[in-house]
Amino acid sequence: MGGAAMTGRKGEKFLDWWSLVHFASGLLLGLLPVGWLWAFLLIVGYEGFEGGLRRIKTESGGLFEYESWRNIFADVVLGMAGYAIMHLAVFPFMGWPGGWWDFLA
Q1: Backbone torsions φ then ψ of 21, nearest 5 degrees
Q2: d(CA 19, CA 105)
């Protein structure tokens, strides 16, 4: 995928195959009754969670691979783009009249 690596180290590209996962998770998040701020906080919070898992070492390395700051930025932007598409195009037509809990009734 796009973007040249700076040193050839895995996780330095602006876009990688995991970028698709971040976009898809944003699409799914856009179907939930959460606002823009919460969506942003959840996406950024997950990136922080990934960073914490990178620090946990196993025999073969960290639980998550290294990511450059530009890759992290791209993941957040793609997650928010997926959220925006669903939140603006599909969410208004979903039946959440009094709140997200109404579907439980």
Answers
A1: -65, -40
A2: 36
DSSP 3-state helix, strand, coil percentages of the chain (rounded to 5)?
A: 60, 5, 35
Q: How does residue 105 score in pLDDT terms, banded at 50, 70 and 90?
A: very low
Can you tell me the distance from the alpha carbon of 95 to that of 91, in angstroms, rounded to the nearest whole number?
9
pLDDT of amino acid 90:
82
Return phi, psi of residue 97, to 5°: -60, -50
Residue at 56: amino acid letter: I
Question: Could you tell me if 46 and 34 are in contact, meaning their C-beta atoms sit under 8 angstroms apart?
Answer: no
C-beta atoms surrounding 99 within 10 Å: 8
- CB-based burial label for 37 (10 Å; 0-12, 13-18, 19+): exposed
User: What are the residues facing 58 on neighbouring strands?
Assistant: 61
Parse the chain into domains and list their residue ranges: 17-91
